[in-house]
Amino acid sequence: MTVGVLAALAVLLWLGDWQWDKFRSGLEQEAAPPPSYETVTVLVEAERGGVARQVYGLIDSEAVWRRYVPGRVDGIGEPVLTLWDATSGPEPVELPLFGLGAIERPSAVFVRPVKRGAFTAPDDIENNRWYTFDGAALIETYGYEADPETRVVEPAEITVRMMDDLSRKRIAINPYVTIERIDTLPPQRHLGYALSWWGLAAALVGVYLAFHGAKGRLRFGSAS
């Protein structure tokens, strides 16, 4: 029992410290001047046919499917992938390329390294469900040559549509506009999480001591 309590206590304390670090990082992010982005025009190459590629993600702690389409910046140069919009909900919604045309937004253009987490689900290419952004693999599915230097165009803001009613939408800060995902949660939320984890750790210690006290295993002061 003691070993289990110590292990659980270590995990709870680590989670509290992790959220505390995110709270401090959030305060620094709020204090920093807002980034500026150049307006980028991407001409979607709809003649490639098919549909947008669906990449799983989180925006404001909400699960979404980000819909990426192929194109070229100003219609020239190497092919890029650009985020068109996103849909919320557990199931992706198809977006045909036909008729998309061009899109012009303040955006960042960069090469996103492939990062697969230990608990990330494997990509389901057959059903167009990607859980890791892999520019080379994604661009290859459109018939282009696979290129690990494929650039992605990420807008500063993203339109998030409801899965069951695409006319219902909201505009959100795009947390994927940088290589390291931006934390869009307010710092106070992380502070609340940290206090919750630490509170659970204190409660665990209290329950442990109360249990052993009730069993007569704890002695305080000198025995009479």
Structural class: alpha+beta
Q: What is the helix content?
A: 25-40%
Main beta sheet: strand number and arrangement?
Answer: 5 strands, mixed, barrel
Order of strands across the main sheet: 1-3-4-6-5
Number of strands: 8
Output the helix-strand order: HEEEEEHEEEH
Mean pLDDT: 89
Pick out the low-confidence regions.
Answer: none
C-alpha termini separation: 29 Å
Q: Number of DSSP helices? A: 3
Radius of gyration: 24 Å
The outline comes out as elongated
Estimate the strand proportion. 25-35%
Provide the fold topology:
Layout: H1 2-31, E1 38-44, E2 53-59, E3 62-73, E4 80-88, E5 102-110, H2 135-140, E6 152-155, E7 157-162, E8 165-173, H3 187-214
Structural notes for this entry:
The chain is of the alpha+beta class. The protein has helices at residues 2-31, 135-140, 187-214, and strands at residues 38-44, 53-59, 62-73, 80-88, 102-110, 152-155, 157-162, 165-173. Strands 1-3-4-6-5 form a five-stranded mixed β-barrel. A hairpin with a 6-residue loop joins β3 (62-73) and β4 (80-88). The chain is elongated and about 80 Å long. The two termini are 29 Å apart.
Quick structural overview:
This protein is an alpha+beta fold.
Q: Any descriptors?
A:
single chain, 224 residues, alpha+beta, 5-stranded mixed beta barrel
